[in-house]
Amino acid sequence: MPGLVFFSSASGNTLRFVTRLEEVSAGRYGTALRIPISPQDPMPDPGGDFVLICPTFADGEGRGAVPKQVIRFLNDPDRRAGLRGVIAGGNRNFGQTYALAGRVIASKCNVPVLYSFELAGTETDIARVRRGLDLFWGMECSTMA
């Protein structure tokens, strides 16, 4: 079963997004695994293909866009091998660095950016991500009969 892995800081925006996505998805993607905030906590093992949901932390120049915990998670070749796409969170107030973490991860790991959302996302974002994940994982036919 394809899965979701996410990182959420203490602000909880990405956690709120993932929680709402799980509620409307009724277990389609299993239980989303959280990359821990504390470096002492063990990393999750997705055990297969997954989509990463990641917020963006960047200064005005774009430095530090990918959270250190996400870098640590992806530095493991076995975990990185299962990465199939990335969904990025951000804040449009930061202009060109909006959702930059997704673009950085996608470029370095050669996977697509599937979607980007602002802060904790909207109901429209949740619906679009669910539909997009269903198509991406082949759970729905993408052609009309």
Structural notes for this entry:
The protein has a 5-stranded parallel β-sheet, with helices on both faces. It has helices at residues 13-25, 68-74, 77-81, 100-109, 123-136, and strands at residues 3-7, 33-35, 50-54, 83-90, 113-118. Strand 1 (3-7), helix 1 (13-25) and strand 2 form a beta-alpha-beta unit. The model is unreliable at 141-145 (pLDDT under 50). The protein is built from 5 helices and 5 strands. The two termini are 26 Å apart. Helix 1 (13-25) packs across helix 5 (123-136). With 145 residues, the chain is α/β, with parallel strands linked by helices. The longest helix is centred in the C-terminal third of the chain and has 14 residues, at 123-136.
Provide a concise account of the structure shown.
The protein is α/β, with parallel strands linked by helices. It has helices at 13-25, 68-74, 77-81, 100-109, 123-136, and strands at 3-7, 33-35, 50-54, 83-90, 113-118.
Question: Given the helix and strand composition, which structural class is it?
Answer: alpha/beta
Helix content: 25-40%
What amount of the residues lies in strands?
A: 15-25%
Number of DSSP strand runs: 5
Computed over alpha carbons, the radius of gyration is 14 Å
What's the total helix number?
5
Residue-averaged pLDDT: 90
In what order do the strands lie side by side in the largest sheet?
2-1-3-4-5
Ends distance: 26 Å
Low-confidence stretches: 141-145
Write the H/E string, N to C. Answer: EHEEHHEHEH
